[in-house]
Write a sequence for this structure.
């Protein structure tokens, strides 16, 4: 396989790496500011507060009377001092809020991008400005504390995955010329795939848990939680990254850029204008020469010049065979 074959072999993982990087960029940059949030609509988590009711459902009040009483007081205080937006979307760097008009969602504002961001409804909805912060139910506080710690690890994993995929593309260009390039690229690709997997798993675990907590605590107040399309894009990036890593590993032992010497030698023998002529055996008689093109060969003795008797073979004969 020559350079052209080597290039064709490297093209597949390169394209997969590009696809993984584009998906990861979509995850990392989605919802980073108002313009991006309005344009691409990518987010991890969404809280729809358009149907908010400060009075909880009777079933919730009966089953969790203490929590219902505390939350009811907090929400009533918020309702008089702070106007809740119709929805809140959560991305990697921050959150955005907006209004719903005739079924259309419009982004009104987004928080400042921060690497240590986590969505804290107590702070975002102004529950900490009511003077009753200490009365926030323990179940909410515990869930938010776990979410805060896990979100930092998630953010770190996404950034490392994105950088690794970019390095993978840069180094992958050198893999066309040698297997050492494939080896280095394969190492980077494995790192990118592992961190992409870790980031996606953390994000899925975090926001599935957060949705469950919202459904348990805030759904009785008319607040609906849902997961966004960013999680699907993140797992698509994982799929591309893992397959690309496998292809890069495959390119280390296969898809050599060198020509096949055995094939070249066979072609040279077929096109050779001469025959191999082993000498006659010790019992006499001339053996037929080997003709690679088929058909009878020339007698295996030196005919000599015209008009002269045959000459005895001289020099080294590599095809002499001894009969035992």
């Amino acid at each position: 396989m020559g350079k052209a074959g080597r290039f064709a072999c490297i093209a597949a993982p390169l394209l997969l790496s590009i696809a993984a990087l584009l998906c990861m960029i979509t995850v990392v940059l989605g919802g980073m500011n108002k313009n991006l949030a309005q344009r691409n609509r990518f987010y991890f988590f969404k809280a729809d507060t358009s149907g908010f009711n400060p009075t909880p459902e009777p079933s919730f009040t009966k089953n969790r009377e203490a929590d219902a009483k505390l939350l009811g007081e907090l929400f009533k205080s918020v309702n008089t001092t702070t106007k809740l937006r119709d929805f809140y979307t959560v991305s990697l760097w921050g959150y955005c809020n907006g209004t719903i008009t005739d079924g259309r969602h419009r982004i009104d504002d987004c928080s400042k991008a921060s690497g240590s961001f986590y969505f804290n409804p107590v702070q975002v909805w102004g529950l900490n400005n009511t003077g009753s912060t200490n009365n926030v139910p323990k179940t909410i506080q515990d869930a938010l504390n776990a979410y805060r710690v896990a979100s930092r690890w998630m953010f770190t994993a996404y950034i490392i995955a994105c950088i690794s995929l970019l390095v993978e593309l840069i180094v992958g260009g050198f893999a066309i010329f040698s297997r050492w390039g494939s080896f280095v690229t394969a190492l980077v690709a494995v790192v990118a795939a592992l961190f992409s997997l870790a980031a996606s798993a953390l994000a899925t675990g975090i926001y599935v848990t957060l949705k469950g907590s919202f459904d348990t605590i805030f759904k009785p107040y008319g607040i609906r939680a849902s997961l966004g399309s960013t999680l699907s894009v993140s797992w698509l990036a994982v799929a591309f990254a893992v397959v690309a890593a496998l292809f890069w590993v495959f390119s280390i032992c296969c898809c050599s850029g060198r020509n096949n010497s055995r094939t070249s030698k066979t072609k040279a023998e077929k096109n050779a204008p001469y025959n191999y002529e082993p000498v006659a055996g010790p019992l006499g008689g001339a053996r037929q020469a080997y003709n690679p093109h088929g058909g009878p060969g020339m007698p295996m003795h030196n005919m000599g010049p015209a008009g002269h008797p045959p000459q005895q073979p001289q020099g080294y004969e590599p095809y002499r065979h001894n009969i035992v």
About this structure: The first strand starts at residue 45 and ends at 48.
